[in-house]
Design goal:
By secondary structure, the protein is mostly helical. The protein has helices spanning 10-20, 56-61, 82-90, 94-117, 125-135, 150-156, 163-212, 217-232, 236-248, and strands spanning 32-33, 41-42, 45-48, 77-80. The chain has 2 domains: 10-117, no CATH class; 125-248, no CATH class.
Length: 258
């Protein structure tokens, strides 16, 4: 039986275009074209990741591979430039389907994380901490008396995190731990409950991201940092440094969690 292609609405096209960032996910060429004095021209096609009407050759390749419950759902389509769409359909390979599914999963994860950002508040005290981080110049001589256990970080990040991301977190934890700890202590003297609420908020958002991505700590860490950056309109780097502090300080990633 031949499947019927859905006609996607303008809103759905906006979603499909928006998630690509304006470029074809395969060749990275622009998929929206503008000319002076003219309206933008759509330069992409809606491609089914799992084929809508598989050819006999595709059926053979897909043997045993799960068919989506709704083949026309937005989760199974992606905006590709016409050239990549044609090539994908004509030279269909399972490896490329799997790659497109991973790309699409990344788009969906980003969309979910952005939606989640709006649901979680963040105490104003975090502004002072991020400002302190931004003006702090690391002096390795000041770190000679540093006393905390980086093995705790290693234990938290034992599973589900890449070596590069783990190294970044440990470096930030070492370089900025004392400055952030001391600044939080000063804030606690002014309003200990506000700092406790801030710690709880970061922990709560971490748990929300952990629920969505239980096996990918790289994503969880970066989503927490992005959330802090979006909520405060401060730099992503400063937000990553603060998130690294909370990794070491038991607010992000519980010891023993996988």
């Amino acid at each position: 039986m031949t499947g019927k292609r859905d006609k996607y609405t303008d809103n759905q096209h906006s979603i499909l275009y928006g998630e690509t960032g304006g470029i074809c996910p395969l060749c990275t060429q622009p998929i929206l074209f503008t000319k002076p004095g003219s309206k933008p021209v759509k330069g992409y096609e809606v491609a089914h990741i799992y084929p809508l009407n598989a050819t006999p050759a595709q059926v053979k390749i897909l043997a045993g591979y799960p068919v989506p419950a709704d083949i026309n759902a937005l989760e199974n389509v992606i905006a590709l430039c016409p050239s990549c769409h044609t090539k994908y359909d004509k030279d269909f390979q399972l490896a490329e389907l799997i790659m497109l599914q991973k790309i699409k999963e990344g788009f969906l994860n980003e969309a979910q994380a952005k939606l989640t950002v709006s649901k979680y508040a963040l105490q104003e005290e975090v502004y002072d901490i991020l400002d302190a981080i931004a003006t702090y110049e690391v002096d390795r001589d000041d770190l000679s008396g540093l006393n905390f256990d980086l093995a705790t970080v290693d234990e938290k990040l034992k599973h589900g995190m890449s070596p590069l991301q783990k190294r970044e977190i440990k470096t930030h934890a070492v370089d900025y731990y004392v400055r952030i700890r001391d600044h939080i202590k000063r804030l606690e003297q002014q309003d200990q409950y506000a700092v406790r609420v801030l710690q709880s908020q970061i922990k709560t958002y971490y748990l929300a991201m952990q629920q969505h991505h239980p096996d990918n700590k790289d994503l969880v860490f970066n989503y927490v940092a992005k959330w802090i950056g979006v909520k405060t309109n401060k730099s992503l780097l400063a937000s990553k440094i603060l998130t690294s502090f909370f990794v070491q300080n038991c607010e992000v990633f519980d010891v023993g969690s996988n």
